[in-house]
């Protein structure tokens, strides 16, 4: 899963063992970025 | 346009006209009432306040000896002719 | 039955017009009006694929805005139902995305106006999307309404019946629409909608002219007023013809 560290703004890859922590700066707040998929929306 | 006759006799006809609304039905009713052969014409939309029925039901009563179905055909022709006349008049002015 | 109609334009522009029709019944006038609003199909965006949307608004909100942008509707016969036209938009902030930024795949289907704002984008925000436009009727969704502000009023005839008392203060008499004065058609906007301005010191009487309706028609830019009115008439003619055929069976 790809996240972005809220302190150093670097992209972070998390695996299920590492816990929630930025490997570069140790910050514990990570942000989930919008996926790059194309999203289809109907106009209602 | 699907038609379903709900009641029919010599001089009276009730017919459901699927897919139409006030736009066409009121014009048609107006045209029917202009005919001398028609004694009464009305339509009813959504007789049941809620639930299924929403298509208009047209009811026509005619003078003795006049088939209401013929009157309906006549009415449709009148609407077509009137609208065509309006269209022509509009295009002439435009 | 041959009915005689008489149509006369009072004001006329591409997108807005006022015209008088003589000889129509109220039922018929209303049928035409309703057909203009709900039964003349126009093009509008129906699905949007977002490639990137880093703006402050949700995809759904922007999709709705794109849907409401009026698009020019191709001439009859050029287009069959279920055909789609794709419009793409790609704007990088800081900028405002306008309807004019939409790039269409078909010359016949373009934004009717170039200056409809869609969203303001700040630094590093971007909107990139593809929108599919389809043809549909006003009764299904307001975005498919070609006629906006369509209505009619009775033509009113003004008659001067006498002079007012010399020292009497004239009260204003407000009318809106078009009045007929001695056969001449005058839009009430010419005298600020007040008969006291046009006939100072006179006593006037107003009456509705039977079977004479003044239509005011404004389109959203999908097509011209002429086009809208003739297509509305066609839609009624089609239905009458269809009923005629159905009854004959």
TrEMBL record, chain A:
Chief subcellular location equals cytoplasm
This entry carries the following GO cellular component terms, namely: cytoplasm; DNA-directed RNA polymerase complex
Q: Does the keyword Transport apply?
A: no
Protein residues bound to Zn(2+): 8, 22, 25
- Cofactors that this protein relies on: Zn(2+)
Q: Which UniProt keywords apply?
A: Cytoplasm, DNA-directed RNA polymerase, Metal-binding, Nucleotidyltransferase, Transcription, Transferase, Zinc
Q: What is its EC number?
A: 2.7.7.6
Cell location: Cytoplasm
SUPFAM superfamilies for the chain: RNA polymerase subunits
Molecular functions per Gene Ontology: DNA binding; DNA-directed RNA polymerase activity; zinc ion binding
User: Which GO terms fall under biological process for this protein?
Assistant: DNA-templated transcription
> Its catalytic activity?
RNA(n) + a ribonucleoside 5'-triphosphate = RNA(n+1) + diphosphate
User: What does the entry comment about cofactor binding?
Assistant: Binds 1 zinc ion.
Q: Which domain of life is it from?
A: Archaea
Give the similarity note: Belongs to the archaeal Rpo12/eukaryotic RPC10 RNA polymerase subunit family.
The cross-references to HAMAP family, in alphabetical order and at most eight, read:
RNApol_arch_Rpo12
Q: State what this protein does.
A: DNA-dependent RNA polymerase (RNAP) catalyzes the transcription of DNA into RNA using the four ribonucleoside triphosphates as substrates.
Partners and quaternary state? Answer: Part of the RNA polymerase complex.
| Name of the protein in its database record | DNA-directed RNA polymerase subunit Rpo12
UniProtKB/TrEMBL annotation, chain B:
Q: Which UniProt keywords apply?
A: Cytoplasm, DNA-directed RNA polymerase, Nucleotidyltransferase, Transcription, Transferase
Q: EC number(s) for this protein?
A: 2.7.7.6
Grouped into one coarse class, the protein's main location is cytoplasm
Gene Ontology BP annotations: DNA-templated transcription
Q: Which PROSITE patterns match?
A: RNA_POL_L_13KD
Catalytic activity, per the record?
A: RNA(n) + a ribonucleoside 5'-triphosphate = RNA(n+1) + diphosphate
Query: Where found, per UniProt?
Result: Cytoplasm
Query: What would you give as a GO molecular function for this chain, any one?
Result: DNA-directed RNA polymerase activity
- Every DNA-directed RNA polymerase RBP11-like dimerisation domain range: 13-88
One GO location term (cellular component)? cytoplasm
Q: Which InterPro entries match?
A: RBP11-like, RBP11-like_dimer, RNA_pol_Rpb11_13-16kDa_CS, Rpo11-like
Q: Which Gene3D superfamilies match?
A: RNA polymerase, RBP11-like subunit
> Subunit structure, per the record?
Part of the RNA polymerase complex.
What is its biological role? DNA-dependent RNA polymerase (RNAP) catalyzes the transcription of DNA into RNA using the four ribonucleoside triphosphates as substrates.
User: Which family is this sequence assigned to?
Assistant: Belongs to the archaeal Rpo11/eukaryotic RPB11/RPC19 RNA polymerase subunit family.
Record-given protein name: DNA-directed RNA polymerase subunit Rpo11
TrEMBL record, chain C:
One record GO biological process: DNA-templated transcription
Listed GO molecular functions?
DNA binding; DNA-directed RNA polymerase activity; protein dimerization activity
Q: Which reaction does it catalyse?
A: RNA(n) + a ribonucleoside 5'-triphosphate = RNA(n+1) + diphosphate
Query: Where does it reside?
Result: Cytoplasm
As recorded in UniProt, its EC number(s) are 2.7.7.6
Could you confirm whether the keyword Ubl conjugation appears in this record?
A: no
* UniProt enzyme class: transferase
- Residues forming the DNA-directed RNA polymerase RpoA/D/Rpb3-type domain are 16-246
Q: Does the keyword Flavoprotein apply?
A: no
InterPro entries named in the record: DNA-dir_RNA_pol_30-40kDasu_CS, DNA-dir_RNA_pol_insert, DNA-dir_RNA_pol_RpoA/D/Rpb3, RBP11-like, RNAP_Rpo3/Rpb3/RPAC1, RNApol_insert_sf, Rpo3/RPB3_RNA_Pol_subunit
Q: Which GO cellular component does the record give, naming just one?
A: DNA-directed RNA polymerase complex
Q: Which UniProt keywords apply?
A: Cytoplasm, DNA-directed RNA polymerase, Nucleotidyltransferase, Transcription, Transferase
State the oligomer form and interacting partners. Part of the RNA polymerase complex.
So what does this one do? DNA-dependent RNA polymerase (RNAP) catalyzes the transcription of DNA into RNA using the four ribonucleoside triphosphates as substrates.
- Name the family: Belongs to the archaeal Rpo3/eukaryotic RPB3 RNA polymerase subunit family.
Q: What is the recorded name of this protein?
A: DNA-directed RNA polymerase subunit Rpo3
